[in-house]
Structure formats: structure tokens, C-alpha cells
Amino acid sequence: MTIPLEFIGMIQPRLQSETHPPDKSVVIDKTYLRAFAQAHEAAGFDRVLIGYYADAPDGFLIGSYIAGQTERIGLLLAHRPGFVAPTLAARALATLDQLSDGRLAVHIISGGDDADQRRDGDFLGKDDRYARTEEYVRILKDVWTASAPVSHRGRYYQFENAGIQVRSVQQPHIPIYFGGASQAAIDVSAKHADVFALWGETQAQVKDITTRVRAAAVLQGRDLRFSLSFRPILGATEDAAWARAHDILETTKRVAGKAWLGGSASGAPQNEGSRRLLEAAAQGDRLDKCLWTSIAKATGARGNTTALVGTPKQVAETLLDYWRLGVSTFLIRGFDPLEDAVEYGKELLPLTRELVAEETARNPERRLA
Predict the structure, then answer these.
(1) Is residue 264 scored above 50 in pLDDT?
(2) How far apart are CA 369 and CA 256, in angstroms?
(3) How many whole angstroms separate alpha carbon 26 and alpha carbon 35?
(4) 97 closest CA partner among 171, 208, 42, 194
(5) Which end of the chain has fewer CB within 10 Å, C or N?
(6) What's the Cα-to-Cα distance from 267 to each of 132, 251, 258, 300, rounded to whole Å?
(7) Per-residue pLDDT for 67 more than 90?
């Protein structure tokens, strides 16, 4: 099997980004949401991520709406264990997979911000959250794949004779993506994840953490795929791309800051992923071929905030470099979210797919058993 290549965009129910503070009078703009989803589908994205914040609209319902407005594109639903019983989540996820004709994947996020967790009533510490996540995902998989009712008595959950009438279209179960970069995240991912997701790091950082994750997965008799998240900033020329990047940085500093992310806007980031981005930013503003860290530095790396800056060809070549390191999935989104999704579909996605196909043809040893 050839190493897969997957592009994921990000869906939001209204216009917002670091450079576009949200209109607080409009929480769900159905016209924008529909156009946003259909633009990703037309651009050739494989999936769209539906994010999770404690004050955001419900992702299950957003996903159901998107599925009804599109025909092909997959959904990646962010889900935090701890707020919905795992037996109920198993049914809801399987139902959405049925309604979307097998287009659903779930992105498990244990939670990297105590303040946002507490908005929904979760006061567990980080280590306990990951322990709960491990039990939660194990239950999801057990319920999804069981041929008879399931009973469970664990540290965080207990139930008797849980069954599920609705089964996911995808077998043996819905694909599981896992967010996090700490050792606890690696340990849980090694046991349960299909895809291990990181924010956009340097090539050296990616090589380091993917090596660690692979080693942990081997001990579990498993093999994982990897995802990286970037904010491509494109231009017809390299100079034009960098000019746009600096305009985005100045606008971010002036009008948005950290507030749009929905989390805590003060203090050092609690999650390991953000700390790793700041470690990269400490090395310089421009790293590797075209990795740009200034937005991460300006916002405290609260979210996916590193960019790849250049022409579509330059950025595609950089994505190929990461693919050579074993990264198969790229979650990309722009600072002008809808317009950039359209723009990525014109050259960046086709060019990257072409480069990967050429590389695979030249190097058949990159095919996996």
C-alpha cells in the first residue's frame, strides 16, 4: 500500500481567524457554513475538521448539517472525553457515520487548557484526563466492535449490558485521530489512535516525535499514521507571499491577539503542543525552507499557528519533505479561511499530490506492506 496523502481543512460556523475577529452577534451563519463546506469539497480536500471549544456550537449538529450540504467530503469531529458518556458517544458517532454515508472520523482531544475544561465542569488534572481518555476510547472501540452486549467497571466509567443497534458504516470502526504531544498523549495514541496529530513543527522536531510515537506503537503491535497542521500563506512570487505574511502578522497584533481562540488569553500555554511551537519560534522566525513562526510567537502558540510561506510550488515541495518523514495527513487552513480554502485547491493541493505521486514512482520502496 502506498503511503497515503490526505488533506484536511477546518470548518467554522462563522467567519473568524486571527485577522478576522468574529462578529459576536452571529454565532452560526448557515450561509457561510454551507459555502465554507462546499468550497472545501470543490477544492479537493479529503476531510474538514470540526473544532471543539467550551463555548462553541455543538460539533455533532454542525457535522450533521455539513453532511447534508455536501456529497463527498469527510468529517473529522473533535471530541473531548468526559462530558458525554462513552456508550452514548459510541451511538451518536455511529449514527453520524450512517447519516454521512461513512464519512466520519473522530479527533480525540483530552484537553490542554484547564480553564476551558472547567467551563464544561471538568476539574481533572492533565494526567487524570489522559487516563480517562484511554478508558473512554477503549470503551468506544469495544462497543463499536462487540458482537454481544458489553459490561464495564473501570476507574472512570461503569455500565452493564451496553449494546448498540446502529453500527458505523466503516469497519471495524470509525477512524480515530488523536491530539496531543506529551508523553501521556503518546502512550494513549500508541494503544488506540489510527492517526497521531501534531501542530506544524520543524522537520527535526517532527522526526524526533514520530520516532518516539512509532517506537511506542510497535510495543503495542500497532502502526500509526501522522498528521501535521499548518497555515499556508501563498503568493504568486516568494516576495509577494512574504509581504502578505507580514501584513497578516501586523493585523493579528492590532485587531485579534489571542481572544478569538476561545481559551485563556493569559499565562504560558499548558499543553505540550503549544510549548513545542514556542521552542521552534525561539530558534528563529524563519526555519527550514519556509516555516514561519512569528504568528505562533505573537499569540503564545495557542492553536495551529505556524505557517508555510511561499509560492504554491515552494510550499508543496516543503509538504513533500514532511511526507518523506512519514507524514501522510496535512491539516491546512488560512487566515482568510474561505478564500484561502478555494486558493489551496487551485495549485497547492494538486501540486503536492503530483509531487508525492512522482516520488512514489521513483522510490517504490516507500510502499508499505
Answers:
(1) no
(2) 47
(3) 16
(4) 171
(5) C
(6) 26, 22, 11, 9
(7) yes
Angle separating helix axes 30-43 and 59-69, nearest 10 degrees: 60
pTM flag (> 0.90): yes
Least confident of 108-122, 158-172, 222-236: 108-122
Distance CA 58, CA 77 (A): 10
Q: Where are the beta strands (DSSP E) in 12-169?
A: 47-50, 74-79, 104-109, 150-153, 158-162
- Dihedral-angle region of residue 203 (phi above 0 means left; psi in -120 to 50 means alpha; beta otherwise): alpha
Q: Average per-residue pLDDT in the chain?
A: 91
Cβ-Cβ contacts under 8 Å for 319 (sequence gap 6 or more): 308, 330, 352, 355
Question: Closest Cα partner for 109 from 8, 47, 179?
Answer: 179
260 confidence band (pLDDT: 50, 70, 90): very low
Q: In the block, which residue shows the cell 469495544? A: 142
Q: Could you tell me the three cell numbers for 311?
A: 509560492
- Grid cell locating 359: 516520488
What is each CA distance from 31 to 34, 73, 74, 77, 79, in whole angstroms? 5, 18, 20, 20, 25
Cell of 155: 476507574
Considering only 40-54, 189-203, 230-244, 267-281, which range has the smallest mean pLDDT? Answer: 267-281
pLDDT score of 151 more than 80: yes
Strands (E), 58-194: 74-79, 104-109, 150-153, 158-162, 176-179
pLDDT at site 53: 84
> What's the rounded Cα separation, in Å, for the pair 62 and 30?
10
CA distances from 324 to 44, 203, 287, 359 (A): 22, 10, 18, 9
CATH topology for 6-366? TIM Barrel (3.20.20)
Q: How far apart, in whole angstroms, are the C-alpha atoms of residue 80 and residue 101?
A: 23
Whole-angstrom distance, CA of residue 301 vs CA of residue 246 = 17
Beta-sheet pairing, 286-287 with 291-292: antiparallel
